[in-house]
């Protein structure tokens, strides 16, 4: 989740989505108490994963202005960016398995994704006008600004979820679209479709996963094996830092726009997909599965995601990173700790209560009774009927998807 300078001048490098699990997909459809609507207890593993992922997202954004020419910081930045958004998006896809075009779910898509997108896509340019003194900064709902790309992507991904659930080989198809996007500079910046398509395979992978797949990477042997894998990846990031542009990690440009031959686009899509999955598996292997002090914060990752960007941008506009951050390791440690503390605070209950009106608005006035949830009762009745009849694999997956959606996505 990052924004590098572009020719049109309306973006700065710290995706980037989103994002709940980031924190990405929004905590839509969940009672304000934070408990799922069905009464099922929340899975601490996923809340822990979402919180830790959003902390890495914030740290990465705060590192960008200070990494300068430090090879160590550049390598650490590359390593984090190789998996923090893929992990966030995979969990978002996992919690979107039950999405369909029912009125109540479309309502949650509007209130939990569309409304925050419109609000923050307007707020960030206005913030730049005021803090940076740039009256020429335009507001455009078609050109996602800074962090809002994830909400735009999540909207598209979720709307197309029924298609990915219906086709026979969704992941190869999504990878094919990502590879085609990587050689198509004509896609342009509208709705940040390059990112939407190039990050699409991670969302589709999340749709294909089931709870038992996450259990596979949480065993002791995988946790131990993840240590040498992560050390090797760190060494590879150190080696690759002067040899590879970090633009590949943002998935925002085609190969031609990055100054590379067209054929490197599909190759890099596949290589980065494999590397990201390996590091994401290591990340999930180390995520604790028990209740911890930060577990409850996993339900508020969208708040931390959308709000921390104002602090990053304020520091960039006002030059705080140059004047207040000491050079060397001390400055890097200070910024890292500050980013972690800040995003933790922004995911907390008091902040969520203040900003819920724009991040998770209820908006009963805008919807008819059909969107209030009567179809939920019908869906529960159908699930009960399939259980009584013995059920099938498809019905079991459908129930898992509905339960996962109510848990709350990144």
Automatic annotation (TrEMBL):
Q: Which organism is it from?
A: Streptomyces prasinopilosus
- Biased region (Polar residues) positions are 1-11
Task: Locate the compositionally biased regions of type Basic and acidic residues.
Answer: 375-387, 394-410
Carries keyword Transmembrane helix?
yes
Keywords from the UniProt entry: Membrane, Transmembrane, Transmembrane helix
Which GO molecular function, any one, fits this protein according to its record? acyltransferase activity, transferring groups other than amino-acyl groups
Transmembrane stretches, start-end: 75-96, 108-127, 139-159, 222-240, 260-285, 292-310, 330-347
All residue ranges annotated as the Acyltransferase domain in the record: 44-346
Q: Does the keyword Transit peptide apply?
A: no
One Pfam family from the record: Acyl_transf_3
What this protein is called in its record is Fucose 4-O-acetylase
Chain positions covered by the region annotation Disordered: 1-39, 373-410
